[in-house]
Amino acid sequence: MTMAYECLAEFYDELMGDALYEDWQRALAPRLSSVRVAVDLGCGTGRMAAWLAERAERVYAVDRSPEMLAVAFDAWGHLDNVRFLESDLCDLALPEAADFALASTDVLNYILTRDALERVLLNVRACVRPGGRWALDTLGPRRLKTLRHGAWHDVRDDLVLLHETEVENETIRHHVCGFVAMGEGDEPLYRRFEEEHVQRYWDADFLTGEFHRTGWNVLQVSGDFGECPVEQADRLVWMLERR
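RESULT FIELD:
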């Protein structure tokens, strides 16, 4: 079994689609006029970092997965104002303070303990100037319910993906089995891989308290970009301000 995103990195954007990226871009576009330095935490394949690079002087694209960063660099390495950094958020440090931070697509849900969460919140705070903003999303209550013993499949010409999830208390385990086409022809061969992704569900009230305790003001939290109440949301969208 491989590490998370070791094999999925090259297919990530194809599987994700455009919807979440577009939601984030619509939400953030009016808020970035005065941003000089931005950081994309858990940048993945770099699409949001590249979008931020059109609006900021400098962007730091941070991810702990070398496979994800390799995909991001192949796509966006030509951008002069983007610097790619391999780092766990528990060890995060930037060469300069950012005006704006982004952590999209459940980044905080990959932090599995309260001690690690506190360390991440403090590290991000240390990398953002006073008055700077941090936008992020976390798993919502409706999504947690869906993930309990969930099973999905995705069949494409070059990829077959089987995805099962199980939830125990706040721990979410994603078991992914994939088959990647190798070569062409009437009967192509397939390479099999398996990955396990582990997440933790963080309650909104608990997160609010932790944000405040570690030096962040919660300016706004909404369900699915304002489409529904927080308690009915798949995704909680937060806007924080660094005290």
